[in-house]
Amino acid sequence: NGDIDYLLIGPVGVVALNCQHLSGTILCTRDRWMRQKYDPKGAPVTQVPIVDRTGRTPSQQLNEPVTELIERLSRHGLDCGILRVVILTHPEVRLSTVEASTVQILLLSNVQPFLWEMCRSASLSIPTERIIEFVKHDHTSGQERNRAETRQQG
Asked: Which residues are paired to 32 by β-bridges?
């Protein structure tokens, strides 16, 4: 469905991370992601959408599975919010305009300070062990479903 590359679970919260190796100047308004193109003299020429092969932007790729995970956790009595973060990992990426994004967008160099600040300013505590066990079980079950579907298709 989507792409959660890493799921950080700790006493102060849950963070879903999606890493994108994009270069160039990136602009994001809500769920609309664009890459600014320039002419040889450095003047802006056009903006190109950033989407996967199914037409989803990086934030949509992360939001879909996170929403599903929140719903599954809630059905098991584990109500907690999940912070959604897209990390731009390419050394030559520049983040330009970000307006009303549905995810937090960070350059790789800003991840550690962001997480430190999150831990320092946290005011809640979540049932970490129960969430970890649920996610492990849910992930294992999902892998088994995928293998069964593959066998049925083959």
From this structure: 29
Among candidates 17, 54, 47, which has minimal Cα distance to 32?
Answer: 47
Residue 64 and residue 153: Cα distance in Å, rounded? 25
What is the C-alpha separation between 97 and 105, in angstroms, rounded?
11
Give the total residue count for the chain.
154
Cβ atoms of 32 and 57 closer than 8 Å: yes
Q: What's CA 107's distance to the chain center, in Å?
A: 13
Q: Residues 104, 118: contact at Cβ < 8 Å? A: no
- pTM across the whole model: 0.85
Determine what percent of the chain falls in helix, strand and coil, rounding each to the nearest 5: 40, 30, 30
Helices (H), the chain: 58-75, 111-121, 128-153
Residue 127 CB contacts under 8 Å (≥ 6 apart), including other chains: 78, 80
User: What does the pLDDT look like over 96-148, one tens digit per residue?
Assistant: 999 999 999 999 999 999 999 988 887 777 788 889 898 888 888 877 777 77
